[in-house]
From TrEMBL, chain B:
It comes from Rhodoplanes tepidamans. SUPFAM superfamilies: P-loop containing nucleoside triphosphate hydrolases. GO terms for molecular function: ATP binding. Pfam families: ABC_tran. This is ABC transporter ATP-binding protein. Belongs to the ABC transporter superfamily. PROSITE patterns: ABC_TRANSPORTER_1, ABC_TRANSPORTER_2.
Amino acid sequence: MALRAARDAAIWGGVALAVFVPLIGLQAVQDIRGELRLDTRWPLLVVLVAMVVGGSLVNSLLIAPWRERRGRRVPHENAALARAAAAFGRWFPPFAVGFVIVFPFLALWLTGMQGSVKWIDNFGIQILIYVMLGFGLNIVVGLAGLLDLGYVAFYAVGAYAYALLAKEFGFSFFTLLPLAGILAAFWGIILGFPVLRLRGDYLAIVTLAFGEIIRLVLINWVPVTNGYAGISGIPRPTFFGIPFNASDEGFAAVFGLEFSPIYRGIFLYYIILALALLTAFVTVRLRRLPIGRAWEALREDEIACRSLGIDTTTTKLTAFAIGAMFGGFAGSFFAARQGFISPESFTFMESATIVAIVVLGGMGSQIGVAVAAVAMIGGTELLRELDVLKEVFGREFDPTQYRMLLFGFAMVLIMIWKPRGLISSRAPSVFLKERKAVAGSLVKEGHG
Amino acid sequence: MAEPLLAVRGVKTYYGSIMALKGVDLAVHEGEIVTLIGANGAGKSTLMMTICGNPRAREGRIVFDGRDITALPTHEIARLRIAQSPEGRRIFGRMTVLENLQMGMVAAGRDADPAELDRVLAFFPRLAERIGQRGGTLSGGEQQMLAIARALMSRPRLLLLDEPSLGLAPLIAQAIFDIVRELNRSRGLTVFLVEQNAFHALKLAHRAYVMVNGTITMTGSGRELLERPEVKAAYLEGGRREAATTGH
Ligand SMILES: Nc1ncnc2c1ncn2[C@@H]1O[C@H](COP(=O)(O)OP(=O)(O)O)[C@@H](O)[C@H]1O
Ligand SMILES: [Mg+2]
């Protein structure tokens, strides 16, 4: 086997060498006089060829045997493992919620006033925004099975709704939050109508286009949205009317504390945490109601749904509307947190990231979505911190530029390892002991 | 004779420009088991789906309990208590047996009766044993039982069954036909059964229709059709042989 591995590696190395010599080893550059000169980059070439050879060796010596063993293994119910998984499912959510509740104080305690800004703002708030977006999209994609690639549109609607209304009319954040949600839900229904008959790839394409349309409108409707320049000076949320600034009426002064931006950070952290928990809670409740059950049935078989008396039109529209509403909430929070928004924040990349979070999380699993958001967004933020990479690849190396490459690589690996997402098992929404109660709720709700 | 529960009159259904049903007339009376037999591609499933409004009849009328349902949306037809166990079962694979059954109650709307679960499960003890199991992990026969049980959850006035014996071992198929007979006897359930397995279907049914190429060519009592030489030649000899070979 070792011999075969060595032979494969040699072949791959040869191929890589042949391909990389003209592509990477040689580089045409213009010198100062404007003449073309041929530069060589042998060290880089050696590194890349070595990587290919190494990869081939790892594959044939480690990965291939592992896959073979895994393929041959008879799938069996491991009772202890199943029990451990069940215990994990029961204990992890409360533990995780407890952790995120104490997180800001933990960060303060461990890293101090200065250091914790990074952890609370860059990590905590940023991740929670995506957790919330993931939860919202999870209703549409994970539960109802409607692949929506334009979810960022609702995020944008929420953000611009808050920014414009707050600047024009001076309403407070908490007044505008529901309004932004309703507006986004309205746009969810607008999107829903034309795509009612579409499924799968076609639906994906139309929703993608919808996201782009919204972005282009934001760019071109300059009198209202200020185009590329965006909207700045968006009012920040206040603590029951007390602003977070250095003035005498500011939060720090009122409470007799020394001014620090960290208070606003902590406040925002708890707002987005509350919003994300609300989304999770509502989703859990909806899953047990006829409408939530109808979403999941819709994902499985639309024809069967209809023949069972489920109105698939309203079922789809409610999924779009409720998913969009949570996107709108997240959007207005985003605008309030940044104080500045522009169409650049609402590109297709955002939609793709959110879809990736939902798919990676396991389509429908809230724990999975939360874990995936932490991994993806936290991972991105961590990349910024990795100065080690600069030492290896040279000073100009900016790790965040390779973010997408690493994302893609990580996703391929995870999808090989867990093709149905991190948490692929679906928790039943009814159990026999509560069947009377659940059946009773079906009686009340005529709609399904 | 009293008004039939379901009357199909001159129904023509098209797939694009291809006419799949070429003017079908058929009636099902309350309390009857009526079967429709015919070769693969005759249009049996198309008729069943047309009754449910998907696809729609381009010509003709479908009347249920004196009401014209030809133009009604599918989910509203289901709410008139026309339950269907469609071709290919179409159970919800990732949902548990219990959840599948509860989806069947949607059509009953306000009249849904939680106690129906126990009554339905009494007919399907195998499902009762597997109440928490995921639908997709059931055997073919159990999935078929689940599809029928799910349809029964709304206390239907008419049960449409599309090829319940498809792909099942003869013994299991027999068990399913026995359940249908029992449901009809004990609850007076009206059944419209589409089958290729003509021998069993004709033995079970009070009345039967034969469909060829989108038209009804023969009708009569189940026993009558069993004796007809044309039926024997076209549907029974082959059917028996098939049953004999799959039996081994
Ligand atoms: N969705 C469809 N689109 C186009 N043609 C169809 C469709 N479904 C069925 N057909 C055609 O209609 C005819 C009747 O099919 P079907 O009703 O499924 O037959 P059966 O159930 O009797 O086997 C067949 O010729 C079939 O090819
Ligand atoms: Mg058929």
